[in-house]
Amino acid sequence: MRTIWLSGAEWLAVLRIGLGLWWLESWRHKDRKGWFERGTGIAWAADVAGKHRWGVVRTGFRRVVEPRLKLIAYVVVYAELALGLGLVTGFLTPVALVAGLLLNLLYLTLMIHDWAEQGQNAMMALISLVALFAMGWQVWSLDAAFGLFL
């Protein structure tokens, strides 16, 4: 593969790191006090799920999320932080890429009506797929330094 300036593996690392920074920004701009103390994030998601055109989303939210509102709030917020850190540092990168892909697909499904959010989640999912199947952890990563997943 011919590339300009960096090798193909290095460009994939740039893509991986950029995706990690995107997750970190998603974590940074969250009102964590609102999410944890007032339940604002999950309340918003409950409103979206309650009006969702797909019954499976409404039912799934009621069965999985509603009994565990506070726990799910922590899981969502700290998953975004863990994904960002994992991708930026290249630590357990395939795990972070698969988890991020699943989280983006969950967001994509929940927010099927909100096209502004759809673009972000679709692009993040696409980057996750490319970085996963092209093994974007081969350079500039802790995984490469430790000889993991090579």
Compact description:
The protein is an all-alpha fold and 150 residues long. It is built from eight helices and no strands. The longest helix has 21 residues, at 8-28.
Descriptive notes:
This protein has 150 residues and is mostly helical. It starts with 7 loop residues before the first helix and ends with a helix. The chain has 8 helices and no strands. The longest helix is centred in the first third of the chain and has 21 residues, at 8-28. It has helices spanning 8-28, 32-38, 40-50, 55-65, 69-89, 93-110, 115-133, 142-146.
Key terms for this structure?
single chain, 150 residues, mainly alpha, 75% helix, elongated
Please render the helix and strand layout as text.
Elements: H1 8-28, H2 32-38, H3 40-50, H4 55-65, H5 69-89, H6 93-110, H7 115-133, H8 142-146
Q: Determine the structural class based on helices, strands and strand pairing.
A: mainly alpha
The helical percent reads over 70%
Strand proportion, as a percent range, falls in: under 5%
Give the total of beta strands.
0
Mean of pLDDT: 93
Low-confidence segments, given as residue ranges, are: none
Count of alpha/pi helices: 8
Distance between the termini: 19 Å
Name the helix and strand elements from N-terminus to C-terminus, one letter apiece. HHHHHHHH
Shape: elongated
Rg, alpha carbons: 17 Å
Q: Give the biggest sheet.
A: none
